[in-house]
Design brief:
2 domains; 112 residues; single chain; 21% strand; binds zinc ion
């Protein structure tokens, strides 16, 4: 059961809640969803306890911006592809129709 000691919280947990000494050895954090605990040991009286932390928010959010250079290159590739298809439609509509027919077939079984 958590002890919500206002005094202990107000001083930032820097003194032993049993004897008041300031020599506290902190242990590892145990992080759970929305909360964390940290085992502590008083080096003066030997008391042990857990500090209880709650998620209160976040800061320093950074969202990566899309790579504009890459997006521009991608747009160029798509534009060139569309241009090539447009040219083929004009100069070789039959070849283009065969190409589409060929590539819309299900894949051939592998030769053994
Ligand atoms: Zn102590």
């Amino acid at each position: 059961m958590m002890n919500p000691s206002k005094t202990y919280v107000a001083i930032g947990g820097i003194r032993c809640p049993s004897c008041g000494a300031g020599e506290i050895r902190p242990g590892a954090f145990d992080v759970d969803v929305g909360a964390a605990t940290q085992g502590c040991t008083c080096l003066s009286c030997g008391a042990t306890w857990r500090d209880c932390y709650e998620l209160v928010g976040f800061d320093q959010l950074e969202v990566p911006v899309p790579d504009r250079e890459l997006l521009t290159q991608l747009d160029d590739v798509v534009a060139q592809r569309d241009l090539a298809i447009g040219l083929l439609e004009q100069v070789a509509p039959l070849a283009l129709a065969r190409f589409h027919a060929e590539w819309s077939r299900p894949p051939r079984p592998q030769a053994t």
